[in-house]
Design a protein that fits this description.
40% helix; binds zinc ion; five-stranded parallel sheet; alpha/beta; four-stranded antiparallel sheet; binds adenosine monophosphate
Length: 472
């Protein structure tokens, strides 16, 4: 059955049927982290939904070209007003490292987080500092279209020359709060933004480059657009990021890209809603209230349980994070896997019903990535007594290639490390022997005895393992 993918497009504020520019191929650009600190679990939420999308597209037989960038220069502490310190240079100075060392260190830490969360790497990670020439060339193109001007501190985009400015964000430019976009001394319009900032005369920056306008460094918005152009082209299918990017970063990206090329930049803009703490407090790197994935792992949580938690809410809804919420998610996640671990490969019954579940799970995901609904259907499938274990496992394998919850990997069960009483070990060994002799009735009886003692056995090809049923 062919499924039609629908995605909510921020441009139109509606769910649209997804039609790629080139049949069978999809290009995705995901705004990556600013690498001056560890990613927090909120940031990481913004990479789970593009991963789900990418795997769904693979499942639907699309070829996907995916880029995630690293913002390793140019993101300022007061980025909405193009003022403040460069976050990377500032953190490097505080930590006694070079900006280059620091940004590579956090980029690598981010990659490890992705691995822990089963997030597939993009085809390419791009570092903004590797695309300086492309960024300068993009400013030159904008210059040829008379869309830039220079001030004492940098080169700015003249948003009055781009009539559609702020369209996606539905910005009320007249009424824009001056406080949120203060016009710098010589800015012509409050929405104008820096393409290139000059190095301060009295200060030697670590990251700075010559340019036709003066020595300096690129603006954060320019970087992403230049990397999209360099790696994917002037019009791409999908661009993703967090909702905070809508009013400034992505608004500015559209102005740069469309101002330069005269072509529509992105067909589908997808934005993930924020992870918040209790009382809707936002989690932010710069707010200093953040939790990293490693913090959770050190507290004894499985990284995949965090992925499970993230998938229990739709990517466009707020996710309220608390220890309690994660604990419940982990309990549910392990319980689901325990049920899966008990499924019997040799049970055949109602394969069509199982396929019907698969269709409904994929259909839920095709409906703007409705992961919570897909998870609910997985629970129903696993517990459906009418379907044989063999078929359930086949479907779970298929859908887990999209959800990436490691549903068939039981290594993160904490109770695997519990001591197994000798009586249980003896029963397990007797059961294994019965199985080898194909006395399945006796093997089942022994398994029942084992489960009455709170344990279960999992069979591999040539071995078995005894595990505890208690989830604590
Ligand atoms: P940054 O490293 O600050 O450039 O952010 C990396 C990504 O995380 C961006 O797509 C942001 O929109 C996103 N992001 C930042 N804070 C949160 C949050 N609390 N919840 C979800 N996503 C966030
Ligand atoms: Zn970006």
């Amino acid at each position: 059955m062919t499924q039609q993918l629908h995605l909510f497009n921020t441009l139109t504020r509606s769910k649209e049927i997804f039609v790629p520019i080139q049949p069978g191929q999809v290009q995705i650009y995901t705004c990556g982290p600013t690498v001056y600190n560890y990613a927090h679990i909120g940031n990481l939420r913004s990479y789970i939904f593009p991963d789900l999308l990418k795997k769904l597209l693979h499942f639907l037989n699309y070829e996907v070209q995916h880029i995630i960038n690293f913002t390793d220069v140019g993101h300022l502490t007061a980025d909405t007003i193009d003022q403040g310190e460069d976050k990377v240079e500032q953190a490097a100075a505080e930590q006694g490292k070079t900006a280059w060392e620091l940004s590579r260190f956090y980029a690598d830490a981010y990659k490890r987080d992705l691995e822990s969360l089963n997030i597939a790497f993009p085809g390419k990670f791009t570092y903004a500092t590797d695309y300086i020439q492309e960024q300068i060339d993009l400013i030159k193109t904008l210059e040829s279209k008379e869309l830039i001007y220079s001030t004492a501190d940098g080169v700015y985009y003249d948003t009055s020359g781009f009539p559609d400015y702020g369209k996606m964000a539905k910005l009320d430019i007249e009424g824009l709060d001056a406080g949120s976009r203060v016009a710098a001394d010589q800015k012509r319009n409050k929405t104008d933004f820096a393409l290139w900032k000059f190095s301060p005369a009295d200060q030697q920056r670590q990251m700075e480059w010559e340019s036709p306008w003066g020595k300096g460094f690129p603006g954060w918005h320019l970087e992403c657009t230049a990397m999209v152009f360099a790696e994917l082209g002037q019009t791409i299918d999908i661009h993703t990021g967090g909702t905070d990017h809508i009013p400034v970063h992505h608004t500015n990206e559209i102005a740069q890209a469309e101002g330069a090329s005269g072509q529509p930049f992105v067909k589908y803009w997808l934005h993930g809603e924020f992870l918040v703490l209790d009382q809707s407090r936002r989690m932010g790197k710069s707010l200093g209230n953040f939790i990293t994935l490693n913090d959770l792992i050190e507290q004894g949580f499985s990284a995949r349980a965090y992925r499970y938690l993230a998938l229990t809410s739709h990517y466009r809804s707020f996710l309220t994070f608390s220890d309690e919420a994660l604990k419940s998610a982990q309990t549910a996640y392990f319980k689901l896997k325990r049920l899966i671990s008990g499924l019997r490969q040799d049970q055949e019954r109602n394969p069509d019903l199982a396929t019907d579940y698969q269709d409904r799970i994929v259909e839920a995901l095709c409906d703007d990535l409705n992961a919570p609904k897909a998870l609910g259907l997985i629970w129903d499938l696993v517990q459906d007594k009418g379907i044989g274990g063999k078929h359930k496992l086949e479907i779970l394998r298929q859908v887990d290639s999209i959800l990436s919850l490691s549903l068939m990997d039981f290594t993160d069960f904490p109770e695997l490390h519990l001591e197994i009483p000798e009586s249980v070990q003896t029963l397990a060994e007797q059961r294994w022997q019965a199985r080898l002799q194909r006395d399945f009735k006796e093997a089942d009886r022994l398994r029942q005895e084992i489960s009455e003692q709170g344990f279960d056995v999992r069979d591999a090809k040539d071995s078995y393992e005894v595990v505890s049923l208690s989830l604590g």
